[in-house]
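Annex B. Sample input.
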Amino acid sequence: MVVKTPQKQKYSRIFLLDRARKRPAWFASLNPEVVSSKADLRGSLCHATRDSLWISYASDLTEALVKSVSWPPPSLGLGVFVHAIDMKTMLALSSCFRRFAFATDDGFLAAEELAEVLEAENGSDLFIGGSVDDATKTITFWRGNVKTLTVPFVAFEKSGDGTVPDFNQFSVIDCGQTVRLGDYEAAVDAILYEYDPEYRRRISKKQWQEEQSFGASLRRLRKQRGLRRQDFEPNVSAKTIARIEQGKVIRIHKKTLNTLAKRLFVEPEEIQTF
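Annex B, continued. Sample output.
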C-alpha cells in the first residue's frame, strides 16, 4: 500500500530536469521547479540543499548540472536520473549527491507512479526501479528513499504454476509494490522481508505488537473455545467481533465486554491474558 506523505514537506526543494510538455503535470503533486534549459540550472543550484530532490529525464541537462557546480561541490541532496549515464558522469554525480538512482532500459516506474512513490510516507518500502546485472546474476533495486537493495537471481524461484522469471524483461509496477520479470511477478514486501534485516525486524515487531492486542487475545480465546464469530449473536454481531479482532475498535463498551466474557466462560479482565 502506498501511504501518502503528511502535510510536512519531505524535501526542501524539488527540481525536475525535463523538456517534455506533459510529464511535469504528472509530478504536479510534488510542486517541482521545472528546469528545461541549461541557463535555468544556475538559478536552481543557488537554492539547492542537502535535502533537495533532483529528477532528470534529460541527459544533457544532467551533464550540464555537473559542469555547473562549484568544486568541491556542496551536497545537492538526492538524485533520480531516468536516463543512461556514462561512467565519468556517474563518478561526478557521486561527489554531488548524498544518494542517487539511475537505471537503463526503462528500469524506472512510469512518471505518474514514480511521483507517487517519491512523495509516499512509506517510500522506503517501495521500489522506484532497478537494474539487472547478468554478469553477477543480481538485480539492484532503488527504493523510494533512493537507497539500494541488491538481490540475487536465485531469490526468484519458479512459481507454483510453473512460471519462471525472465530477467531480460524486468520492470517495477503497481506503484512500486510488484517486480515483474516477463510473466513472473514478485511482491516487493516479500523481497524486503527476505533481504532487508531492518525491514524484517520492523515488520516482526509490528506483528508481535498486534498479537499482544486485545483483539488478538479475543481471537485466540474464541478459537480455543471452538466458537465462530456468529456464535456471539444476537448480543454482539459477527461484524463487530471481526472489527474488534482486527484492532479497529478503540474502546469496547462494558456491556459488550461482559457479553464476550460470559460467552467465553471467563471474567472480562481475563480475556486480555490469552
